[in-house]
Specification:
CATH architecture of the largest domain: 2-Layer Sandwich
CATH superfamily of the largest domain: PAS domain
CATH class of the largest domain: Alpha Beta
Radius of gyration: 16 Å
Helix content: 25-40%
Structural class: alpha+beta
Strand order of the largest sheet: 2-1-6-5-4-3
CATH topology of the largest domain: Beta-Lactamase
Strand content: 15-25%
Amino acid sequence: MDLETVPAVVVATRDGTVVSQNTPARRLMGEGTGKPCWEVVGGLGNAEALPCGQGCVNWVITRGPNQTQHTDIKLAGRRHHLTCIPVDELAVCTLRAEGEQQPKKWEVLTAREQEILELLAAGEITSSMAERLEIRESTVRTHVEKMRDKFGVSTRAALVALGFRLGYLDNVG
């Protein structure tokens, strides 16, 4: 698993503290949990044009969900795309090598997973999703876990951020 198949994902709080990384992010950037995001992502060796700096996470969150930060960078001589998305009081940043083929919706998410992802993006919690969809809470949790596995992320915030990045949530907002 690398940037060719799954993007690196870093989740940081408003003050810039990294609270979560997926496996590709840890492989690329090292263990960053508890460290400032601008040091973890901004410390990528051989990277050009990174927008990272002290206060950048707060800036992304303050701008709001309709102002996602997209930046094209060079990493080790190859073009990459860095996207930072505010989700509640977190910033979820993804780093993907340019030119990667995006998965097709029908290959990745079931119709029910799509519904649950949309409800997650709208801020719904497990109990309200279960009630709305007339399913058990354990079923909602199972769908969320399957989507997290498919996307290679460890948090619901990262799942929503990738949902936006991959185009699953284009009509949400």
